[in-house]
Specification:
This protein is an alpha/beta fold. It is built from 18 helices and 21 strands. The radius of gyration is 24 Å and the shape is globular.
């Protein structure tokens, strides 16, 4: 078996990137560093491979992308899909273009026809091109919303979705470190077809953006009803595609946060390139206040997620949670589908860690809803299993939404178009998205959700999860634990590193009355970053005073999150 030190020597011989070669030369005498970089190999997580950029098979770099591309190519050929070819894309992070061209040239050298989008592009455009070209595989070099020092690789297959088990395991088994690919294993660049990014944008918009625009009553939406919108791409790749999509949809152009409009993989001025994180929308909300605008939309750096902030009548900004945005979009799409009267059964899907308000809404409206494992590779699976059905909507609470099956992955651009349309429809009624949430609560009950995450070493997270499984708590925040579901148990609906806890009804009261709610907690390791993720939900079927009831239930969830987070801090 090759030792980490021996692998380091082999790596140094073929590494094409001067910065990583220099890092190896500078650090090779430190055994801990060698073990950390060369002692293991990256695996496919929830959304592909992601890691900090650096040398060795435990980091993201050009050699690792070549190794992964070679494995994908070998599996393509073995599956009989080699002739269908592959399509490759990349985001604007430093080094992404070099990694993408390495992957494309390696596949081409294996005799697989390859096309590469010739500039930084949103991930949904790569997913769309895979379908448009009927390609066998798609490779997207992106770290999405991960920390600025990370990069990653997402792999799609012939069905148009991200790879799922056991396919990812077969590809991983082909990632051979005993023979590292060098420059000699790459085809010339001219052997790779170049796809003009502007043409790719036009094809995507033509397929994914619904035209013309109707409201829920079947009437054309007046663009004048669409409220002014401030938009930020968070220094990512979304602006150009969103501008084209809004224009095609007949929507007024948004007001851009100019210093975050153009791609910049250094993400200057951003505390974290993730719209879920505190502070990332501050500049957009400040611009909105300056322009007297009440609605902010944001994409993450690769534009496959959508975040929304709304200013209420008291001029207070409210960042919609992933679940709140999900139920608003689902409600809008159900109403649109009702007007268009599709002859087929409509279906939707959400991840098990997401809130259950969308499921309740779909049940009330006659839409078949599927709960899946975490990640869009699973959320889109019902669309594949029910090809004759009308795909309505898919979502996960981490700001991922599917509003069209023109892309079989989450898509922040088409979701932004649909949210702008629903905002216009609501404005025509004289109400805001927040007021529409209140209307939906009156219909299907109060659902309060929350999430927390704890950054920790992977080993510490694994130890804490093992301790939770071995000795589940009897109470959390003074509430009795009534049911524990270990999703690694053979009796669970799907295998996953997830523990689900149900608590005795929480009573959040005041001097006048009590408010009972069912409480659920889901806990899992992140599939993209070294952190534990905690998801919480409280459901009360008959709320009385919505603002007060939300506040009370949120206090219950906050207390639970604080207690559960400590488990991982002590690991």
């Amino acid at each position: 078996m090759t030792t980490p030190a021996e692998l380091l020597d082999s790596w140094l011989e073929i590494d094409p990137d001067p910065p990583t070669r220099q890092a190896i030369e500078a650090e090779r005498h430190r055994s801990e560093w060698v073990q950390a970089h060369f002692g293991g190999v990256l695996r496919f997580g929830t959304a592909g491979m992601r890691a900090p950029v650096g040398p060795g098979p435990e980091r993201m770099n050009r050699v690792m992308v070549r190794i992964a591309a070679r494995a994908v190519g070998a599996e393509l050929i073995a599956a009989g899909f080699g002739s269908r070819g592959a399509v490759v894309g990349f985001d604007a992070r430093p080094g992404s273009a070099d990694m993408a061209f390495d992957a494309a040239r390696l596949l081409a050298a294996m005799g697989i026809p390859v096309a590469i989008i010739d500039g930084p592009a949103p991930t949904p455009l790569l997913a769309r091109q895979l379908l448009a070209r009927s390609a066998g595989a798609g490779l997207m070099v992106t770290a999405s919303h991960n920390p600025r020092d990370d990069n990653g690789l997402k792999v799609y297959w012939a069905d148009g979705t991200q790879i799922r088990p056991p396919l990812d395991q077969r590809i991983e088994a082909r990632m051979d470190l005993s023979s590292l690919p060098s420059d000699a294993d790459l085809a010339a660049r001219h052997e790779v077809e170049s796809l003009d990014v502007r043409s790719v944008i036009a094809e995507y918009v033509g397929a994914a953006v619904r035209r013309p625009v109707f409201d829920a009553d079947g009437q054309p939406v007046d663009p004048n009803d669409v409220p002014p919108i401030v938009y930020t791409a968070l220094c990512g790749v979304g602006s150009q595609t969103l501008a084209h999509a809004f224009a095609t949809a007949g929507l007024p152009p948004p007001i851009y946060v100019e210093h975050q409009r153009q791609p910049d993989g250094a993400f200057p001025g951003l505390p974290f390139p993730n719209p879920e994180e505190p502070g990332t929308l501050d500049d957009a909300m400040a611009l909105a206040e300056d322009r007297d605008v009440d609605l902010v939309l944001a994409n993450d750096p690769d534009a496959d997620r959508l975040a929304v902030a709304v200013r209420d009548r008291d001029s207070t900004w409210c960042r919609l949670s992933g679940d709140e945005l999900g139920v608003l979009l689902c409600d809008w799409l159900i109403r649109l589908a009702g007007e268009q009267r599709p002859a087929r059964q409509s279906i939707s899907a959400s991840s098990v860690v997401s809130g259950r308000m969308v499921e309740a809404l779909c049940t009330a409206r006659g839409v078949a809803h599927h709960r899946t494992l975490t990640g869009f590779k699973w959320i889109m699976e019902p669309r594949l299993q029910h090809p004759a059905a009308h795909w309505l909507f898919g979502y996960e609470e981490a700001l991922g939404y599917s509003v069209t099956d023109a892309v079989l992955d989450k898509d922040g651009i088409s979701a932004a178009v649909e949210f702008a349309r629903l905002a216009g429809s609501l404005a025509a009624r004289g109400i805001s998205p927040l007021e529409r949430l209140d209307e939906l609560t009156a219909e299907i009950g109060l659902h309060v959700t929350g999430a927390a995450s704890v950054r920790a070493d992977t080993e510490d997270i694994a130890a804490a999860m093992a301790a939770l499984r071995a000795d589940p708590p009897r109470t959390i925040a003074e509430l009795s634990v009534t049911k524990v579901t270990d999703w690694l148990d053979p009796s669970a609906p799907h295998p996953a590193d997830l523990v689900e806890l149900e608590l005795a009804p929480a009573t959040a009261g005041d001097s006048h009355r009590d408010l009972e709610a069912q409480v659920r907690i889901c806990i899992r390791p992140s599939g993209t970053e070294p952190k534990a993720k905690i998801y919480l939900e409280a459901v009360s079927p008959n709320p009385d005073d919505l603002p007060a009831d939300r506040h009370r239930l949120q206090a219950v969830l906050d207390a639970i999150a604080a207690e559960v987070s400590v488990w991982f801090k002590r690991a």
